[in-house]
Design brief:
The complex is a heterotrimer.
Chain A lengths: L2 H12 L2 E3 H26 L24 H6 L5 H22 L15 H23 L29 H22 L1 H7 L1 H27 L13
Helix pairs in contact in A: 4-8, 6-7, 6-8
Chain B lengths: L1 H12 L1 H6 L8 H9 L10 E3 L5 H4 L2 H20 L9 H10 L4 H28 L8 H23 L4 H14 L23 H6 L6 H32 L8
Chain C lengths: L1 H24 L4 H21 L3 H15 L8 E2 L15 E2 L8 H7 L9 H4 L2 H4 L8 H4 L7 H7 L3 H14 L25 H11 L1 H9 L4 H7 L1 H5 L2 H11 E2 L10 E2 L3 H5 L3 H8 L3 H10 L3 H4 L12 H9 L5 H4 L2 H18 L17
Antiparallel strand pairs in C: 1-2, 3-4
The chains are: A mainly alpha, B mainly alpha, C mainly alpha.
């Protein structure tokens, strides 16, 4: 037997195939039925919400976006609307779309694995969980005037007045931004030289840029919660 | 017993039967293949799939379920359209009628609502699954991009549906959402650099979304048309592409 | 394994579908109708046992047949009025309350004070009771209802609540040109508001609005006392007197022929004081004011209905014409007499001319 035939047999074994009918279709069918059952039963016991007729004169307090956008509404606390409502989601979408083109690691294609792609999985999971954490906070822990309440506290209108916010002076802000992004770009390039070289110059910059922006959101949240920082940079046109 | 079998045999031999069902049901490889190929609903599938791919723990059925829920939403949504009129003067009343007067109306509305939420959840977790299995890697990069677009469209579908009951919940949720749109740089009247293009409250992106400077009848109509016609068509087209590319990019992903 | 799972999921699907079918066939409201028709049926059966007349029996039997196969259906009252989102209403107004509250006799009995003026099939339920008339789910329909009179009165936080209700009444009323003013004698429960008596007003208002009160107290409050002394009033029977009550009392009720207070007192113009007096008692004088101030019914003064129109006193003509004992100028045309005497007095002070001897010599004061 030639080498070629052996390889073919091995290959066939690896991708052993079964008929879609019934192996796949049956499972899909059962899954569809079960989902329908869940929907029917859940709908039976829990009515869809219907509040009073829309009334422009009586704002809801708190007025909340649909739950899947509450992550963005939650960031609104820490950023101006143009960042939280437009720039952040745009970057998330663009970043997601860019993933297959900046992740050049060939390993882990078609199976669950962690060790071969530690960085990618960690960062993605971090973002995913971060997004849902924000949603949970926005859904369950934000009361009237978007004030914070623990889930076991009842919402009320007399919450302690939040401490006054301070903004960094611009020279410090620019300095901090430069340090954050400059070191953020340079240090990993030096520390993980192999990783950076594998990615190439453009991919490395995009990857790290997106990564730093994501962490930047976290940093800003931390700055606000710990030091009551309002803005890092103020310009006549926009504030960050 | 024999008589029944005789009748069944006779029935399956008639011209009418044969014109509808093109192949027998005897368990042969040929029939299994034909079952997939000759059925328009099933021919989305390849005749054979890798063994690992039919494991629930590989896909968790998430992509398929998302599509199934989309179909579920289409069916309930079309039925809802028979009763619901996107008119500010009666939309809310239609909702109450649907809940209490229309036979099975509560089922339609409630399951449509929860299915909408369920689709957002399944689509998110489908994305997570695809990421964790590395299924976006070459040659499937572009399908991932399509998937991201479908994710966004799912959000938008759900979001536009939120306003339709015309209740306080939807009204103020849309208010929050579109006010964020008003802060778009350059294109929103509250965003930075709005003055550059002379963008004001009555010509910015929020105005385009709402069909006015505030949420009123045009906004309801816009939400309705986008929700029932616009986005489903776009999403449907992208879904066709998405499924097509799954097959053309080498079928369901698996270890190379 | 797969087959068992398939079987299980199919059974689950069937069960959940049946659950919904049952929900469709046996809605919450149906049980009330079942109960009601059952009750009715039993009552008719009992009646049937105790009757003997052939005709009656046949009638009751026909009734029974109908009740044995009752038709369970949603019942609704379609209400008049426009609906637009701008007015915070939505959809053709309809009250479906009678789907569950189906016993009309019982409803009529419990609403005996209002049902005549506000028939259910025209005015519906929610105009007084609030809640969501459209809904058929108890929790949703009863959200924010005013179950009893007490709850309705508690609702009366501002005068506007009452005005809105009057407006609503006017919209619902079958006549197109009904104005809300026709309902201003109604309190928040839809019943006629109670006359509190001028004594209650006077407790505060003798001091608060002295000139106005003094003027009216001296003049119109006493108008009934003047009448009491009039010879035709004394001579007249109750039917004759009723014509006097119409204008010279407060809160005269045409149907019963009774009045609430003698004389044209506060509530004759300001309307029955139940609501605004209670506002003033509760320290919400400004709210009470709103009602008391819009209430003066100018048709009470003039117009076709009012008191101040010419020939109002024509009925008295006959009495004075026939009577030889009474001077008509004293009792019948006092105003005329006053004008004449005033004119004469003017003349007298100017030219010192003599009094016309033809004029009567009585010196009766018109007012006391």
């Amino acid at each position: 037997m030639s080498n070629h035939a052996e390889a073919q047999i091995a290959n066939n074994k690896k991708t052993e195939k079964v008929f879609s009918w019934p192996n796949l279709v049956a499972k899909e069918f059962i899954a569809a039925i079960l989902v329908t059952v869940v929907l029917l039963v859940y709908s039976y016991y829990v009515d869809a919400p219907l509040r009073e007729l829309a009334n422009p004169g009586e704002p809801e307090n708190p007025a909340k976006a649909p739950w899947y956008f509450l992550g963005l509404q939650e960031i609104l606390v820490y950023f101006d609307p143009w960042i939280a409502g437009v720039v952040v989601p745009s970057i998330i979408i663009m970043g997601l779309m860019a993933i297959p083109y900046i992740d050049v690691n060939p390993k882990g294609n078609g199976g669950y694995c962690f060790w071969d792609r530690r960085f990618a999985v960690t960062v993605f999971l971090f973002g995913f969980i971060f997004w849902y954490l924000l949603i949970i906070v926005g859904t369950y822990m934000r009361g009237p005037f978007w004030a914070f309440f623990w889930p076991w506290e009842t919402w009320s209108f007399d919450f302690p007045t939040p401490p006054p916010l301070i903004s960094l002076p611009n020279w410090l802000g620019i300095f901090a931004l430069l340090i954050y992004f400059g070191f953020g770009m340079l240090v990993p390039a030096v520390a993980f030289w192999k990783f950076a070289k594998q990615l190439g110059f453009i991919r490395y910059n995009i990857t790290m840029g997106l990564f730093l922006l994501m962490m930047g959101v976290l940093v800003k949240i931390a700055l606000r919660l710990m030091f009551n920082i309002k803005y890092i940079l103020q310009t006549p046109w926009f504030n960050i | 017993m024999n008589l029944i079998l005789y009748f069944i045999r006779k029935l399956t031999e008639t011209e009418v039967w044969k014109s509808v069902f093109r192949h027998g049901y005897t368990d042969t490889s040929r029939n299994r293949a034909l079952q997939t190929i000759s059925n328009v609903w099933l021919h989305l599938h390849p005749v054979k799939v890798p063994k690992h791919a039919v494991k629930i723990r590989f896909t968790w059925c998430l992509g398929g379920l998302t599509f199934f829920i989309f179909l579920f939403l289409t069916v309930t949504g079309v039925l809802l359209m028979f009763y619901y009129v996107p008119d500010v003067n009666r939309a809310y009343a239609d909702m109450i009628d649907l809940m209490y007067v229309v036979p099975l109306g509560r089922l339609l509305r409630t399951s449509h609502r929860w299915a909408g939420h369920a689709m957002v959840i399944t689509v998110c977790f489908h994305m997570l699954r695809v990421f964790l299995t590395g299924s976006y890697k070459a040659p499937r990069q572009f399908n991932w991009v399509l998937g991201v677009l479908l994710l966004v469209l799912t959000f938008l579908l759900s979001f536009t549906g939120y306003l339709l009951p015309w209740d306080q919940l939807g009204y103020w949720a849309i208010m929050v959402g579109t006010n964020m749109g008003a802060a778009t740089p350059v294109m929103g009247y509250q965003g930075p650099f709005a003055e550059l293009l002379g963008v004001k409250i009555n010509n910015d992106i929020r105005f385009a979304l709402l069909g006015g400077t505030q949420i009123d009848a045009p906004s309801l109509l816009r939400a309705y048309v986008w929700h029932c016609i616009g986005i489903p068509i776009i999403a449907g087209a992208l879904m066709i592409l998405h499924f097509w590319r799954v097959r053309k990019d080498g079928g369901i992903s698996g270890p190379l | 394994m797969k087959k068992k799972l398939f079987l299980l999921s199919s059974i689950l699907l069937l069960v959940s579908t049946l659950m919904w079918v049952k929900d469709m066939l046996e809605p919450e409201w149906k049980q009330y109708q079942v109960e009601y028709y059952e009750q009715q049926r039993k009552a008719v059966e009992k009646q049937l046992q105790s009757t003997s007349g052939e005709e009656e029996t046949a009638e009751l039997e026909a009734k029974l047949v109908k009740l044995q196969k009752p038709k369970y259906e949603i019942k609704q009252i379609l209400l008049k009025g426009d609906y637009s989102w701008a007015d915070q209403s939505n959809g053709q107004k309809t009250d479906r309350c009678i789907t569950c509250h189906i016993d009309e006799a019982k409803l009529a009995a419990s609403h005996e004070t209002v049902v005549k003026d506000f028939p259910f099939d025209i005015y519906g339920c929610t105009v007084c009771h609030g809640g969501t008339g459209r809904s058929l789910d108890e929790e949703h329909a009863h959200h924010g209802i005013f179950k009893h009179k007490r709850a309705m009165r508690q609702r009366l936080e501002h005068a506007d609540v009452l005005f809105d209700m009057w407006n609503e009444f006017a919209t619902l009323s079958l006549e197109d040109d009904t104005e809300w003013a026709s309902f201003k004698d109604r309190t928040i429960t839809g019943e006629k508001a109670i006359y509190m008596g001028s004594g209650k007003c006077m407790r505060c208002h003798t001091g608060l609005t002295a000139p106005h009160v003094e003027r009216w107290k001296r003049v119109k409050f006493e108008s009934f006392n003047v009448i009491k002394e009039a010879p035709d009033y004394i001579a007249g029977d109750e039917d004759y007197r009723k014509k006097c009550y119409e204008c010279h009392t407060t809160g005269y009720n045409k149907e019963t022929g009774t009045y609430e207070e003698e004389g044209i007192t506060c509530e004759a113009c300001h309307g029955p004081g139940e609501v605004y007096a209670s506002f003033m008692d509760r320290g919400k004088a400004t709210e009470g004011q709103k009602i008391a101030k819009i209430t003066p019914a100018y048709n009470k003064c003039g117009g076709t209905e009012g008191c101040h129109r010419s020939r109002r006193h024509e009925m008295r003509v006959k009495f004075f014409r026939d009577s030889k004992d009474h001077d008509p100028y004293e009792w019948f045309k006092p105003k005329y007499k006053r004008i004449v005497s005033e004119a004469l007095e003017k003349k007298k002070s100017g030219t010192a001319e003599e009094v016309d001897p033809a004029l009567p010599k009585h010196n009766i004061k018109f007012v006391r």
